[in-house]
Amino acid sequence: MPAAHPSDPEADALSVQQELLRLLARQGRRVPFPVGLSAVAIALMASAGLGPALPLAWLALVFAVLALRWWMLGRLPAWHERTMAQRLNWAVALSGLNGIVFAASFAFTPWMVDHARMLQTILLLGLCAGAVATTAGHRPVFLAFLLPVTLANSLAWALQPQQGGAAWLEWLLAALILAFAWILAGLARDTYKVFADSVLIRQQQLRSNERLRQALQRAETANRAKTRFFASASHDLRQPLHTLSLLGAALSLRTLEPASQKIVGQMNQALESLASQMDALLDVSKLDAEVLTLNEQRLALAPWLARLVQEFGPAAQRKGLSLTLDCPPEAHVLSDPALLERVLRNLLDNALKYTASGGVRVHVRAAELGGEPRWEIAVIDSGLGIARSEQSRVFEEFYQVGNPERDRAQGLGLGLSIVSRLVDLLEVQLRLESEPGCGSVFTLSLVAVAPLEASALASSGPRRHRLAGLRVLVLDDEQPVREAMQALLAAHGCEVRLAATTRAAVLDSLAAPPDLVLADLRLRSGDDGIAAIQSLRSALPDLPALLVSGDTAPERLRQAQAAGLTLLHKPVQAGALLDAIEQVLARRYPGLSNLAG
Q1: CA 291, CA 197: separation in Å to the nearest integer?
Q2: How confident is the model at residue 485, as a pLDDT?
Q3: Helix (H) or strand (E) run with residue 348 in it
């Protein structure tokens, strides 16, 4: 938050005076009613001994002054042609005129009976007391009304004693009136101080709110810029990485000498590591775009976790760590397998990354929460541990414990941030227990469900045979990507045709209708993959299609979701690409094994 700017005394004084004019304008519309009633009462009491002519003339003058004040005070706040000092002088003059007119009513006292004079004094002193609030205690405006009224009131009692009364009582009353005026002047001073302070506090709040609004706007702008940067950088980096990934996968299917096969394996392993970091950025974009939806299923934890642990086994072996799993076979939960796998992958990757010796254990145990049965998955490591003061910060984006130099080998610092946001989406409870030097335990608590019945599902055979003969149209404006995609799919027995533009894709599909389209989302022709697929489907209804893109901008993710298309992000691992192909084809064709030909 920016530092508070020092206040400008002239600007503050101007703000207070402007607010005073607005207050006087509002009061100028409210005051005439009680003041007018008081004037009518005084005129009636005076007319009883003097006759109606002079009291009525005085009453008419009172209403004329009230009308002038009502009109003139209402104009002062917006009368910018005049300076602030001139407008305040008008307010003082109008207040003084009003005070002089009411002071003139004491000319009627010789013809008024004693109780009428008492009531007149009470009414006019009440108006003086009320003026403290209606003028906000502003000294010149308030005294302009107070002085003529109280001085005339005091003189009237001192010079015109009551009938048959003691003279000292009138002098005492005259003195008390002046003392009351002095007290009111003190109250007015304090009232104006409170008024000015409240205006300045309100102005400071407005300035603070404006600074906060500007800071929030800058933060939102920076966040949008970050998202655009991630999307742009991700797209540009993913294109060549996607090509390398496909070529590496195609190369691994060839028969090579052991030394070459080892090099290919190491290359693919490096590509997978880089793709994993790219996917971390993609997960952030997906969460920002709010396009992740839950697909809850019954999940048998034992085989599911065994596969994950097996995949992380080589990474643990390279560091000399043990990686074990302890999961009861009856453990079944209800969750989204894909999102939960992302959470577990991040936790396992984080545990292996920060453990130098010992090992990592995945332990599943039964638990209960509020009478509801649950299964808890604990990822336990013997790593560095996390100090209590840092345990909340490890879930922040880009924050890493013990990595101030930003060693890229330790990742981007997004893993636990993504975990935190995904568990909120999954409505899974996450606990962290850790002490420096004693390792860490991340525990997920999931709702338990009854075990699944044994399934008779069997594999349809090797994927290479299942996809043999599949006609695939690849639409991408990058020639290396098209050729790499062709190399991979051809290795699995697919018939692959290539197109760089929507027009070429439509013409090719009319000549040889494909079974599947793989389209890039962004095309140089000014078109995009979604529009291209819609054009193809106008000629070939229900044509299975997949979008492939390196663009991770949230709006792109929302567009693909709105179009009902599966979006794969470059670099796509060969297994993930082939899995997606089988899934989209299975929705269109009942039997994948019957696709050939």
Answers
A1: 50
A2: 84
A3: helix 337-353
Residue 121 lies in a domain: yes
Identify the burial level of 405 via C-beta atoms within 10 angstroms of its C-beta, where 0-12 means exposed, 13-18 middle and 19 or more buried.
Answer: exposed
Nearest to 585 by CA among 543, 550, 556, 523: 543
Mean pLDDT across 347-367: 88
Pair 158, 21 in one domain: yes
b/e map 416-439, b = 16+ CB within 10 Å: bbbbbbbbeebebebeeebeeeeb
**30 with 52, same domain?**
yes
Tell me the CATH number at 325. Answer: 3.30.565.10
Would you say 515 and 492 are in contact if contact means Cβ atoms under 8 Å apart?
A: no
Helical ranges in 364-501 per DSSP H: 415-426, 463-466, 479-491
Same domain, 544 and 426: no
94 and 131 in a single domain? The answer is yes
Task: Write the CA distances from 79 to 29, 84, 176, 324, integer angstroms.
Answer: 17, 9, 41, 82
Token pair for residue 135? 């003028």
pLDDT at 1 over 60: no
Question: For the chain, what is the domain count?
Answer: 3
Q: What is the pLDDT of residues 407-465, one digit of tens each?
A: 444 443 444 667 777 777 777 888 888 888 788 888 888 888 887 554 433 344 455 55
What's the CA gap between 536 and 519, in Å, rounded? 11
**CATH code of the domain covering residue 262:** 3.40.50.2300
pLDDT band at 403 (very low <50, low <70, confident <90, very high): very low
Q: Which domain holds residue 140?
A: 9-165
Which residues are CB-contacts of 506 (< 8 A; sequence separation ≥ 6)? 535, 536, 539
| pTM attached to this predicted model | 0.45
Q: Are 351 and 326 within one domain?
A: yes
Q: How many helices (H) and strands (E) does the chain have?
A: 17, 12
Residue (of 304, 320, 395) closest to 359 by Cα position: 320
Same domain, 27 and 38: yes
403: phi then psi, degrees, rounded to nearest 5: -135, 55
Which residue's structure tokens are 């989406």? 425
Domain annotation covers residue 580: yes
Q: What is the DSSP letter of 376?
A: E
Report cis status (omega within 30 of 0) of the bond before 571: yes
Assess if residue 479 is contained within a domain: yes
Residues 437 and 499 in one domain: no
The DSSP symbol for 397 reads: T
For residue 356, which of 380, 378, 382 has the smallest C-alpha distance?
A: 382
Give the C-alpha separation, 253 to 249, whole Å.
Answer: 7
Written as one string, the DSSP assignment of 459-475 is --S-HHHHTTT-EEEEE
Q: What is the pLDDT of residue 452?
A: 57
